[in-house]
Write a structure and sequence with these properties.
Length: about 375
Amino acid sequence: MQVSIWEKESFFAERDLIIVGAGLCGLWCAHHLIIKNPTLKILIVDRGIIPSGASTRNAGFACFGSPTELLHDAEVMGAEQMWQIAEMRYKGIQKIKQHFSADDIDYEDCGGFECLQNSKHDIEALGERLLWLNAGLQAITGVKETFVWANDKMKSFGLSGFDAMIENKLEGALHSGKLVMALTKKIQSLGVDMLTGIDVHHYEERDSTIILTTKQNISFTAKKILVCSNAFTAQFLTDFHATPARGQIVVTSPIKDLPLRGTFHFDEGFYYFRNIGNRLLLGGARNKCFDAEATTNFETTTIIQEELEHFIKIHLLPSQPFDIEYRWSGIMGFTEDKQPMVKHISDKVTAIVACNGMGVALTPVIAEQLQL
């Protein structure tokens, strides 16, 4: 593609920093850096018309970990690392609420819940572990009992087939699309530029600059680049990637007098559901076929979609007909130790990937720790 002198000196002018990926990670990093240095010339590029991946294709949870997920994380990464990640997630949610009003992003302080079954967990033993979790979380949240039993609420929510439920009043729900739009508007008002439909496929480091080439046959020049393309990073940085994980979601048409209110997890977070007004959203079930869901393909699959509908029939709307109006998937990035991956590949190239399904909460805090 040939460019005009006007385009070369405006849209395609050299920048101090180019961020590859306009999802929540790239946006929060741009926000942090432009606040820190208002004269910095930053351009964000994304291959989609809007940010693709998971930022606008998630379930809209503002959560920092259900009890069984935190306990599992403690086993995988150790208790000290688990507490550090839990604190980052919690502080990330607070940062979102500080920057945007509830109306801006449809934030609801609706609380979070974890549903439990005796067949999957020793509920009596879990009660003892809650004491340990609450003691650790008090130092983070300032609340004596972050997790409390809420078995008496299961019936009022219309839930069926669960043996116990735990409530966390510090979690909530938000509108993922409105969050991304609000954050985009904020950074653009601060002087950050953005171009969509730009698919970067190669970079070349030179003495004082770095050249990005794209599938649109347009080249960009910058002093540094920051790669925030999550599970898609392997398509750009071939020796540096996170394992992709597709999260499939269904949303029903409006249901009259839907009793469910709040955000809910089940089976260590592999199932997650909430209300959107009078609609029911349910996502997950990738633990039914891990290998098939380790993909960057956005297509939904029959096996997962049928499992999600079955879950609704058994547990969420056991005596009520429903229609599925929306079906979609988002692509997350995971590491083996469930730690976010921040890597300085060279003096000019840095990559941040893999929020392990917690990008909404983690990205505001990861951005603040960024050193370029």
